[in-house]
# Entry
Amino acid sequence: VWNSCLAFIKDNITPQAYKTWFEPIQAVKLTDCALSIQVPSKFFYEWLEEHYVKLLKVSLTRELGEKAKLVYVIKMENTYGNKLPFTEKIPSSQRSNMTSQEVDVPIKNKNPELKNPFIIPGIRNVKIESQLNPSYSFDNFLEGDSNRLARSAGMAVANKPGGTSFNPLLIFGGVGLGKTHLAHAIGVEIKDKYPEKTVLYISAEKFTQQYIESVKKNNRNDFIHFYQIIDVLIVDDIQLLSGKAGTQDVFFHIFNHLHQNGKQVILTSDKAPVDMQDIEQRLLSRFKWGLSAELQNPDFETRVSIIKNKLYRDGVEMPEDIVEFLANNIKTNIRELEGAIISLIAHSSFNKKDITLDLAKKIVDNYVKNTKREVSIDYIQKVVSDYFQMDVDTLQSKTRKRHIVQARQIAMFFAKKFTKASLASIGSQIGSRDHATVLHACKTVDNLAATDKQFKKFVEDLNKKLTI
Ligand code: ADP
Ligand code: MG
# Structure
């Protein structure tokens, strides 16, 4: 059965992916409609689940019918100690021979849920999926004064990854200004020019999750090794590492390793390095080794060309005055600009009406008003904790330290004031408290603001920040 599945799978993916992810699998058992396959590691299993689950399902259903079930058996490892095979230098001639067979350890546990260490055998010749979005390219990243430096630095890096002084390349700028797009574009271009290079795009958030998982499962070393074999590492929204000491530490090690080996690192952040809070100094100083390039608000001309480009790609025509109206009214966020175009097109096509200036006004109004009115509880917590220079986790923590309790109460107060959320929902979102706590917080803030000048100023400042 498994061999037929394999034949089907082989026809549907690249030979390289097949070799990497399917050859090492061994079928171990078939009972009724359940096929057990043995995979070399927990990581391997997760990768299969994430990337090939559909393919596996289809192939298995073809063989065993609708009731087909797949059971993973994970080879466990804990006999190697520090002598993990891939920590040793492997002559390149032998690498291609490394398969799971070399890690022939007894199956200690058949339950994939168990949190035991795993290893990634032969990882040196594992093909890592880049996670790049091919629709984010340099071609459709329009150039303007606002992004010229970042864009050309990105090009330079793409031409010679690891071979310029832009290492790391840190792209920073506000929300919706193209950081993620540019980061992908660099990766896509590198993949195009240097197909043999291992490129990996990952958000800092996902990186953090993976790291935490690896610690839970006692796999920290494997996590590090996985990242150390990458040629071009792109980490998006690096500011999200703020306040996360453990993740910063592991990233520091990975960064150093890659940098020392001439590998390229590309980072994005919504803040300039100087403004990043709760990021270790040694990490910040690494960021400054290379080039920090800012994406600024696009000027009018650039906004117009971005709109026209989008319309062109969508095959939609729009009168010039409307294009300019949009460009004039949505200035600081390209994502919003695109959103407005999309809803304009949608409105006109659903209602079978032409795109008129009137319609554009309505939509932009909605758009701008909505984005103004929509202050979320997350956003409030973020603003409040920034203001008091703590991170959101601290704000939500169980601590009774006075200044933290006050910050939390203020966040609750504003959540009540600016959102429609119920007291219970506010409570659960701000550190799992109950509605009575929120009610108490609101009263406390009212009282304190009436009696304590300093406190009153906090509330007023924040009120301003949240209503702009
Ligand atoms: P960020 O990561 O900075 O929040 P994104 O990269 O997600 O922003 O960009 C938001 C949207 O704006 C994306 O759809 C992106 O394609 C588009 N965009 C940003 N900059 C440009 C540009 N220079 N040319 C064309 N589209 C752009
Ligand atoms: Mg982004």
